[in-house]
Amino acid sequence: QTRWARTPPRFQHTRQTHTRSTHEPINMADFVNKQFTKEEVADKVLEQYDEEQTRIFYQCVMGGGGHDIHFGIYKNPEDGVKESSAATTDWMMTQMDWANPVKAGQHVLDLGSGHGGGSHAMAQRFGCKVTGYNIGPGQNALNMERCKELGIDHLVDAEVGNINDPLPAEWTGKFDAIWSCEVLCHAGDKLALFTELMRVLKPGGVFVFSDIMGADGADEKALKGFTDRNATTFMGRPSMYIDFVKQAGFKYVTWWDGSHHLERYFRDMLSQIKNNRPEMNSKGITDPYLDNWVSSLTERADIQRDKGVFAWGVFVARKPAVGEL
């Protein structure tokens, strides 16, 4: 049985990279009534994701013990956060491969690679090289430890970087494909980032990404259940992302709408907190921190059920090939 399953087994965590004690309580990542500028958001993302205890929280509550820390696609009635998150990774790889097949020896950029679930899956499925670009050194260490366990550390690497800064100049035309899973909500200038991604992608290359967004027409205040717990600038909208893709020079391929999975996933996150609270408490995650999450997730799930204000899904675009109009 995997760790952080619905009946929680004993948790065995990887190395600690920050100075905070593993058992020192936290009350952080509390962004109530706050959204941040492009210049501010990077520090807040580190606070949200890369402290030892917050990595434990996300790996339990969204990953189910795995490394796919993102929203999920439910294919079976018995699926939980772990299975549905893995299904999202698989679906994104399928979408990317349909747009332009990914081959062994090619090089993929995983933008905001987090714990590395997408990097691991692409390296295993395609035999491609993957470079993760991610702001959290603790997450990157966890990613690379897992790569060694899987025997793919020769294919995957992870660099520390901020998506709100220009990408390295030497990356121009470097990558055969770009992957990004639920990261762009942390980008302060989404069009500028898309323009940078266009620069570093080879002609004909594919850009596949997912994100949590507001539904088209949703008021930003209605998204409070998300923005109170997440370091955001402004939430994207499906139509906005399609416009940005085109403005940056990409060929728009498709947008797959998975928003109907969100309410169930929010409620499964609540179940993960309930079922694993004692174990998380033992690792220094306080009840006030968890209670704040319960409050915001309940609000999120209820407003999604009643008004459908959140959107989520997968976008696919291509950089035009040489000579392509």
How much strand content do the residues show? 15-25%
Largest sheet strand order: 3-2-1-4-5-7-6
Following the backbone from N to C, one meets helices and strands in this order, namely: HHHEHEHEEHEHHEHHE
Structural class: alpha/beta
Helical content stands at: 25-40%
Oligomeric nature of the chains: single chain
SS elements, strand count: 7
Mean pLDDT: 85
Indicate the radius of gyration in whole angstroms: 19 Å
Count of DSSP-assigned helices? 10
Indicate the overall shape: globular
Sheet with most strands: 7 strands, mixed
What distance lies between the first and last C-alpha atoms, to the nearest angstrom?
Answer: 52 Å
Low-confidence regions: 1-28
Provide a compact summary of the structure.
Helix content is 40%, strand content 16%. By secondary structure, the protein is α/β, with parallel strands linked by helices. Strand 2, helix 5 (137-150) and strand 3 form a beta-alpha-beta unit.
Could you explain how this protein is built, in words?
The chain is of the alpha/beta class and 325 residues long. Helix content is 40%, strand content 16%. Strands 3-2-1-4-5-7-6 form a seven-stranded mixed beta sheet. Strand 4 (175-181), helix 6 (190-200) and strand 5 (201-214) form a beta-alpha-beta unit. The longest helix is centred in the last third of the chain and has 21 residues, at 262-282. It starts with 40 loop residues before the first helix and ends in a 7-residue tail after the last strand. Residues 1-28 have low confidence and may be disordered.
